[in-house]
Amino acid sequence: DFPFLFVQLANYGPIARTPQESPWAETREAQAMALSLPDTAMAVTVDIGDADDIHPKNKHDVGARLALAALRTVYGADCVYRGPTFASMTIEGPKAYLKFDNIGSRLVAQGSTKLKGFTMAGEDRCFYKASATIMRDTVVVTCDEVNQPVAVRYAWADNPGPLNFYNWEGLPAAPFRTDDWPLITAQPPDESK
What we know:
Layout: E1 4-7, H1 23-33, E2 40-43, H2 59-73, E3 85-92, E4 95-101, E5 107-109, E6 114-115, E7 118-121, E8 127-129, E9 131-135, E10 138-142, E11 151-154, E12 165-167, E13 176-177
């Protein structure tokens, strides 16, 4: 029952200009899986990293996010301590409607009406940059190249570039994917057995 608070990998390396597979995104997903254990919390930092430094200099925001997590997880304070986390997706025609947990007071696209960092794929599993907007407590995602969407990903890159998806309290949305397709870091089956 000892609390365990940790920091998810920050954005690092060249900004991904096109959607691609990412070992760092997969590691972030593996880190987030630890939240299924009791007394755990994670500070998302995919928005405050440094493309040129694997150890980002912005320790203040990291510390502030960990402090909120400790206040809630360890001390039971009634506070918003996480940013939006993916909950569910509904497809209607060419649009994907995404619902989130931990929206705080409301969802926010900081500095814009359009959200950055979303990609979409059809059954061919080819991802393209997508348009995403907030409609009350839902994110609506569309893509000109995908008429029949099957999957959506958010911040799925070593460095997804500038992001602006937060809750009103200023905490960033956690990277996610809606698909369960095999990932590049998956171990191939051992054929010798």
